[in-house]
Backbone:
């Protein structure tokens, strides 16, 4: 069967929020724990729910850190968020060719929609499965299974695209094909170890897979 449904991670895949996330972590950890982190201290955890990452740094203060992170992140969201130049073109071509598309993210719905609207991308996606929509999150299959249910899509005809091993493992656990993006900020060997079905160098390569 061909690919008729494409699911995308959001941060680092559709929109570039790497700088925003790093700066949010730096600010939060310096304020609450008193030291300055390097990007490589947090990038391996990109893609997992924020509370889990913050607990890696402090089991005692993570809830306070969560509030601080979210306040800083929301205030600086539009300043630091960017978009890859090939994203809109690829999404437009898939949309015109009848491909059903959805977002599967560990981000809160409110901020996910804000990021999409910043670049007029919301119109391309039939569903957004966000942090609030499932009890279990990537790499568990639940977020993708929820998206498939909402889209009335078949596993065999679905591709998940992401920049994190959590995306690839989520796809594998849900029984759908996966594509790892080479523009990830994470060490790429982490994605390779998750065994994606495809590796893409730019968004337009999804059209070749389809």
Residues:
């Amino acid at each position: 069967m061909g690919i008729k449904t494409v699911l995308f991670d959001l941060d680092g895949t559709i929109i570039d929020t790497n700088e925003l996330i790093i700066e949010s972590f730096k600010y939060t950890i310096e304020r609450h724990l008193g030291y300055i982190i390097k990007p490589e201290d947090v990038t391996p955890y990109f893609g997992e729910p924020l509370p889990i990452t913050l607990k890696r740094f402090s089991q005692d203060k993570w809830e306070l850190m969560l509030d601080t992170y979210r306040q800083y992140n929301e205030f600086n969201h539009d300043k630091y968020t960017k978009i890859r130049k090939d994203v809109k073109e690829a999404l437009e071509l898939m949309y015109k060719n009848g491909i059903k598309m959805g977002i599967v993210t560990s981000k809160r719905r409110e901020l996910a929609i804000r990021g999409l609207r910043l670049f007029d991308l919301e119109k391309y996606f039939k569903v957004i499965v966000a942090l609030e929509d499932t009890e279990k999150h990537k790499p568990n299959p639940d977020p993708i299974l929820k998206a498939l249910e909402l889209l009335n899509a078949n596993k065999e005809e679905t591709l998940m695209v992401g920049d994190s091993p959590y995306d690839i493992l989520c796809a594998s656990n849900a029984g759908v094909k996966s594509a790892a993006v080479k523009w990830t900020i994470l060490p790429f060997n982490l994605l390779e170890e998750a065994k994606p079905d495809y590796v893409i160098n730019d968004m337009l390569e999804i059209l070749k897979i389809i």
Remarks:
- The chain has a mean pLDDT of 96.
- The beta strands are 5-8, 15-16, 82-83, 100-104, 127-129, 158-162, 177-181, 198-200.
- The longest strand covers residues 100-104.
